[in-house]
Amino acid sequence: MFREVWTSAAPLRWGMVGGGQGSEIGYIHRSSACRDGGFKFVAGALDVDAERGREFGVKLGLSPERCYSDYKTMFAEEAKREDGIQAVTICVPNFLHYEVSREALLAGLHVVCEKPLCFTLEEAEELKALAIEKNRMFGVTYGYTGFPMVHQARQMIARGDIGDVRIIKMQFAHGFQTHPVESKSAGTAWRVNPKTSGSTYVLGDLGTHCLYMSQMMVPGLEIEKLLCTRQSFVASRAPLEDNATVLLQYKGGAVGTLWATSVNAGSTHQQKIRVIGSKASIEWWDEHPNQLSYEVQGEPVRILEHGMDYLYLDDEMTASNRMGSGHSEGLFESWSGMYRRFAECCQKLDGGAKLLDVLSGTWVPNILDGVEGVRFVEHCVESADNGSLWVEYI
Amino acid sequence: MFREVWTSAAPLRWGMVGGGQGSEIGYIHRSSACRDGGFKFVAGALDVDAERGREFGVKLGLSPERCYSDYKTMFAEEAKREDGIQAVTICVPNFLHYEVSREALLAGLHVVCEKPLCFTLEEAEELKALAIEKNRMFGVTYGYTGFPMVHQARQMIARGDIGDVRIIKMQFAHGFQTHPVESKSAGTAWRVNPKTSGSTYVLGDLGTHCLYMSQMMVPGLEIEKLLCTRQSFVASRAPLEDNATVLLQYKGGAVGTLWATSVNAGSTHQQKIRVIGSKASIEWWDEHPNQLSYEVQGEPVRILEHGMDYLYLDDEMTASNRMGSGHSEGLFESWSGMYRRFAECCQKLDGGAKLLDVLSGTWVPNILDGVEGVRFVEHCVESADNGSLWVEYI
Amino acid sequence: MFREVWTSAAPLRWGMVGGGQGSEIGYIHRSSACRDGGFKFVAGALDVDAERGREFGVKLGLSPERCYSDYKTMFAEEAKREDGIQAVTICVPNFLHYEVSREALLAGLHVVCEKPLCFTLEEAEELKALAIEKNRMFGVTYGYTGFPMVHQARQMIARGDIGDVRIIKMQFAHGFQTHPVESKSAGTAWRVNPKTSGSTYVLGDLGTHCLYMSQMMVPGLEIEKLLCTRQSFVASRAPLEDNATVLLQYKGGAVGTLWATSVNAGSTHQQKIRVIGSKASIEWWDEHPNQLSYEVQGEPVRILEHGMDYLYLDDEMTASNRMGSGHSEGLFESWSGMYRRFAECCQKLDGGAKLLDVLSGTWVPNILDGVEGVRFVEHCVESADNGSLWVEYI
Amino acid sequence: MFREVWTSAAPLRWGMVGGGQGSEIGYIHRSSACRDGGFKFVAGALDVDAERGREFGVKLGLSPERCYSDYKTMFAEEAKREDGIQAVTICVPNFLHYEVSREALLAGLHVVCEKPLCFTLEEAEELKALAIEKNRMFGVTYGYTGFPMVHQARQMIARGDIGDVRIIKMQFAHGFQTHPVESKSAGTAWRVNPKTSGSTYVLGDLGTHCLYMSQMMVPGLEIEKLLCTRQSFVASRAPLEDNATVLLQYKGGAVGTLWATSVNAGSTHQQKIRVIGSKASIEWWDEHPNQLSYEVQGEPVRILEHGMDYLYLDDEMTASNRMGSGHSEGLFESWSGMYRRFAECCQKLDGGAKLLDVLSGTWVPNILDGVEGVRFVEHCVESADNGSLWVEYI
Questions:
Q1: Interface predicted TM-score (ipTM)
Q2: What's the pTM?
Q3: Are C86 and C13 in contact, with CB atoms under 8 Å apart?
Q4: Does D266 lie at the interface with A, CB-CB under 8 angstroms?
């Protein structure tokens, strides 16, 4: 079942905005992007403290002159080089996503950006239009979707293994902000500040993961209307929420519930999705990411394991699978699978394919999904701020 | 930690309405009521088919003449006997709860009735008033609340072990009605028929269990408003729902989510409650009823086991505990603990105590909880039938 | 799947030797024996302290004159009554099992005795011969074998669902004697004293449960030789062990490992059996007694749930099943199922059937299994005391 | 808790013997060795089919001229280059470990070799002596020991958190050879052939992992004697076993049990270790590698999570931790941590330190552990082949 994963083409020259020393997410990006040879890390504007950023970049193997003080300088200087960067990853606080992504596209770069994509649907649509116009790849790092078993679930649902989809239960429910830790943690502080985080905290930070996971597993499903209620249990976080529940009504009669929280005391993750159909349910849980629970009504629950012969393999899933069954894959492998697909998309675009064509042929979180995430958050806020009433999903 | 459980007084002479041959719930009632010597089974109107009922009653050890064709006859005839019944359990389809309970109280009997108590809040309030007037015990069989660990959770929350309550997640989510089994199952057929089941199915049948569990664990909590959405995924069940989600806003800022469903394909039970506080969470799951998960933010998750010395014992909990740690207790023990408390309440009333005084001093599901269950269901229906809008909880 | 369990005949008049106030095991015996109407508790020699025993017996509903000071008096006096006891349960420390059982058989009583049956194989064989001669039922309380899923496993193995049996892994591994608690606990003190416990502690107390479970699930399997190593980690317990491991070689090539311990720190039970075959494995664990894990090589693990339609039902298993799927059954139900079968066997013998014929037609732990348990313990001790060498199993 | 992991020095020029196309283990070696910049992959003798090896090497980024037809040529040619390899990993079938390792050391290379190290203790001791003489690092890939929680367990045991060690339960028990798959699987075929695998299969392949894990967690423990029983359930594998059980007697009174099998039908891994002490037990399971179960007798079980503040951190453990709590790490991270330590050791030796000094100051599986593994296997075979008697451990 193992298949060595390696991109066929030469690596893309790649830079980073953000992700400096002490950034966990920066480390994950670098580890994953370069894992399969899809990207080669050659430049960075890694830190708001330019000196610290340079020092760290050199430690990571960059040439000192390609450690830039800010992203604008990086884009300008790299553009002058024959061996300048072809792609850039943006992992800075949310409020900068829009402007950096925009500049990167204008500089002709392929872009990978953290979620949530940006603050407003207008901005998101503009980025989308720009990506299409420039014909550049634009990936959005919904990083849990590289696990083989997530693709297995998608494929089983598409084949009708659970019957008609009736109910989707989604949650991402950790407890790391149970206490007002923002006074001590910079990583929390910017997330609970509207200026840097936008109009939401957990809806954008956690809820969009759930949303994308559901869209990946059940791609045909369209939201008809939704209702959101949100709370700031640590009061100083208001108006940003640390807990939110969203009810979803899909077209055709299915319903959903989404719970995003960072005050689920004692929990370290608890990201789960359960899709319930007219014949069976399928459940994936990020704490056992190499298993799927497949539960046909009236039959014993079956625990499917990654890497086994009985899986319904397609190329997407095979390509996600780095080990034989029994060996645990973790979040790095999920991200690496995602970045490998980013690289493949970039290569196709560089070979002349068109963005929307490329995206329609693969399963990788991209600008379209980023737009949907922003749309979703906007509707949630509209509902929550209007007494938690239903809002049509447009 | 083990303490032999046995009621001190003579058993109450006890009859049943319903619970005839093939009734699982009837069997649980009998097994539990007589377990600790609180009740002695002496009479029954067990079946709509009088002959079948008599035959079955005799098999269970009743005298033939005390196997009655209907409850009215039973109440009348038993009243004439010196050794007539003192208490009666009513386990008939929902639409009969009100009238049989009313007649039983009028006949001067202590009553135990299945949930949901009745169809309307008016009826429920009438039964409550009548029970107070007649000073008869009126138990309602929320049968999961006899587990020692449920009482342990209540006590820990009361002591502040989780801090201020913020969020309550409740669910009772099985899949036994995934398919339209009502064509073959009489037990499902009456439940999805409004004439026999009332205005709801899973809200009354499952959701009221969740509600009572939350009220038992967090007794001070008052609902301020709620919102309900319900669906009939097997369309022929409409207007009765086979899936429902309720959002709850409590006074003081806490929130809740309640999911009741019988179309959770592949699941056999999945009744869970998680109470999340400002310091810790506590979770009980009926599939591991002898454990509690106690999760203090920033500390390792602790798995508490029934029967261990480290538990915070009070008399209520000790009295619920029939075995040492490591030995599994099941639903029968939970029910038996509940019935033992029913018996103790009856004895106190017979000794001259007043109903409301007795109820305020113990933790046993009773008429007041039954009324609350009906109130809850009414508000849910009101919300669901009005576009799933918020309704004030009065 | 639910079937009401009730014995058809009149209850047998039943007494107890031991099981007085504060005895957990006494409580389990009484609760289980009387559960289905198979036995009626009418007499007892419950306590070495005669007065305390009488007081407790009366509290349990016995007539004062049938609360005896010792078992000899009870057997003699009851024999004079027309309504004297027909059956007796013996739950006294191990060193008394032989003499009380012998006297009971001589008094013409059906017997139920705690395990381990007695101290020597000679005694055990004598009891067996006497039971056959007197044609009295002789049950031995391997009380975990009443769970429906244990019978399901037996049936699946018999049908070839796992192929040829290769390996049996057995364990009963709690930690309640991690510390030298015998100084404070009378229940531990007699168990670690050779005078009252015999030549072993955990081998007899826990290991025989494992052995019987394996014999019940795989009845054809014969031990060819075994090797035992045992330790007294609390040194004052020597020569009695608090930890033991047994290697088993079965005729035909299968092998087994059995681990019995009471110093598995932090564990409350951990009784498990896994039978591994040439096609699949099947595993039962007493902490989830209503489930079986069925694991076909190359297929997803299946979790079988009690009470479901997909189970391979035979009468034995159906008769063990008191609830529908999703409702948890516990140890009391397992014991009750065992006692119901004891009653049925007694009734058959009273009806003229012969003991060995009756035993060969049902699955209930009996004198033959009790003899096997003693044989097993003797061989283990022989091996352990001779440098843990292999001993032929005769 | 996150700390970016990166080696400080320049990467070592590194080659591979074996690990060609389709080799899962080869992929893991490459992914891990290069992960933190400790090694740079520059040369290989990857395949017995020289052409296929060259093609694959080029695909992986090697220069064609550094893709060698065999390891001797590689060592000779690389030695002539200024930029020749400094280290080599050997992942070929067991029978080649000795000769390739020996040649590598003679060529002055740091060595990383798969386990079991070689066939005889003599060979193993020779390799050890040679490594000391040449002062070259010699790592052995017990690849599960890079998980942070394994180091956490070691540290807790060393601090006395479980009291005195009494019992060690070890198992590595998968089912992938339940059927005679060697007819179709080359990877199985060489493992069950004595010519290529040596005197054992699962003892060397799986059992040595368990042994090393126990030695890492409880470093002071010395085996006094052991007894081994082994079987070939697929008969054609004889004399190589597909199932083995080892009883261990440690100096000082502790005991152990080790189960290694590849016929545990339905299981995909099941590598576990439980260390039981006089106060508590600690258990690690490779299917939940980011958790530890810490079970103090008389207290609730605690589930420790990687990356949390409450862990007892030392530098070794911190350096193993690549992500914050809640994010799953997998086997690649474990291997990467191991290879990072290999690199650090190489750097120290290149800086003039002496091998045994370096090894005594870190926790990384090395030649000394490799020797112990061979010693263990030899004793097991000696026992098993002599009627499974106890053998003194010398």
A1: 0.95
A2: 0.97
A3: yes
A4: no
